[in-house]
Each structure stands twice: as structure tokens, then as C-alpha cells.
Amino acid sequence: MTAPLFYADLSDGDEVRLSDDDVRHAAGAMRLRRGEVVQVGDGVGRIATCRVESADRRAVVVAIDEIEYVPAPRELTVVQAIPKGERGDLAVELLTETGASRIVPWASARTVADWRGKESGKVDRWRRVAKAAAMQSRRPYLPEVTELLSGVPEQPTFVLHESAHTSLFDLVLPAGPLTVVVGPEGGLTEEEVSAMGGTPVLLGPEILRTSTAGAAACVWIRSVDRH
Questions:
Q1: Which pairs from 61-64 meet CB under 8 Å and 24+ separation?
Q2: Alpha-carbon distance values, 222 to 99, 129, 143, 206, 216 (Å)
Q3: Count of domains observed in the chain
């Protein structure tokens, strides 16, 4: 079984003290003991293999054995129309697990969820969900969760759209950063599709939920990047 991953600052000596939130998980739920092997990442590519020096419900300290640097993958941004209810958390979990570099929440014209006056708290929640999913999937790079979308993507963009005539899977992906736009449960307006300035694409004959469509696109893009 792969050693569990935690995130912390790796720039201060040969020992790392886990954060209070991670202590509760490591010492409580996981019941880590002295001598067990864990991984600690800095969230920007460095992964340390460590041994637990001490662990109780007040503090967990690990000693660094070695540090590996993992090169950054292609920058992959997903503009995610805010799903309603718990599907927002699901979308963030899946995007994190399938390799999104950046997740941008978007209050589109047909978005049902209302974040007005609660933007800061909602974005913070998405960041916590992303971190937990990144730990579970052992990601060297933590995805960035930004504030609400306030402009138009400037890099090559694919807009997932049920009325598109081109399949994402038939395209030759350009090099460099990419953006994928995922609409809400009610779909994108024609004005939004035009404003994004990207290429409308299909993912297949079926219509996926807004909480799963972005992840499906990420899986394919990352698989292409590996070949």
C-alpha cells in the first residue's frame, strides 16, 4: 500500500511537524506509530519520504529520509460552473483526482447555486475539499482553487457543449496550457459559448452531469500527455 501523503513546508531542516488538521487525521483516524513510513509534499512538486518520529493527538513529527522532485505536468485549468448542493464538492474531488492544475468556480447565467455574499466561505470549502482529494490521490502538486471567474480564459480553451459537432477525442491537442469550460446543469447560453472564445467540443453521445464532465475531459487530456 502506498504510504499516506501529507502537505507541509519542506524547507526547514530534516524534520517536519504536521499541521493541527493533519495531526487529528494521522494520529487519530490513521493511528500512525513511530517508525512508520509516510510521504510529505510541499504541494509544488517536492515529495519527501519520511519516518514517523513521534505521534500523539497533540503533535506528529516525521524525519525526512529523502526528497524527490516531480516535474510539473501541463497546466490544465477547469472553469467549473458551480453545481448545486453536494455536487460542488464532488466536482472538486473528481477534478483534483483526475489532474486539474487549477479550478475556477464560475457563476454562469444558468447556475442554480447562489454564492452571493458567501463567496469567500464557499471558495475556502472548495480549497479544503481539493486538499483532501489531493492527499488521497497522492498528488505532488496541489491544485489551485481561485476566486470566482471574472474574465475570459486567455489560453487555448475547449468548451464542453452538447450541441458541438467536434469530439474532444478527435482533436490534436496544442502544446502548452489548456482550459476546459464546464457549464451548469441547465447548460450554457449561446452568448457564453461565444464569449469564451474557445472550441466547442463533445465528450460523447451521452450528456454528462456538470459534476463529472470536467473530470472526464481531464482523464483524457492527461492520458494524451503521457504518450
A1: 61/15, 61/16, 61/17, 61/18, 62/15, 62/16, 62/18, 62/38, 63/14, 63/15, 64/10, 64/14, 64/15, 64/16, 64/40
A2: 7, 21, 14, 21, 10
A3: 2
What CATH number is associated with residue 32? 2.40.240.20
Per residue in 44-80, pLDDT (tens digit) is 999 999 999 988 888 888 999 999 999 999 999 999 9
Please write the tens of the pLDDT for every residue from 89-121.
999 999 999 999 999 999 999 999 999 999 999
Q: Based on the domain organization, do 217 and 153 belong to the same domain? A: yes
Do 33 and 52 touch, CB atoms closer than 8 A?
yes
* Better pLDDT: 155 or 74: 74
Residues 73, 225 contacting (CB under 8 angstroms)? yes
> What is the model's pTM?
0.93
- In 24-172, which ranges are continuous DSSP H helix? 87-97, 119-136
Please tell me the distance from the alpha carbon of residue 160 to that of residue 158, in angstroms, as a whole number: 6
The answer to whether residues 93 and 49 belong to one domain is: no
Q: Looking at 69, 104, 125, which one is the last position of a domain? A: 69
Which is it for the CA torsion 161, 163, 165, 169, positive or negative? positive
What value does the mean pLDDT of the chain take? 92
Same domain for 172 and 64, yes or no, is: no
**Residues 201 and 120 both lie in one domain:** yes
Burial (CB count <10 Å: 0-12, 13-18, 19+), residue 140? buried
Same domain, 172 and 142: yes
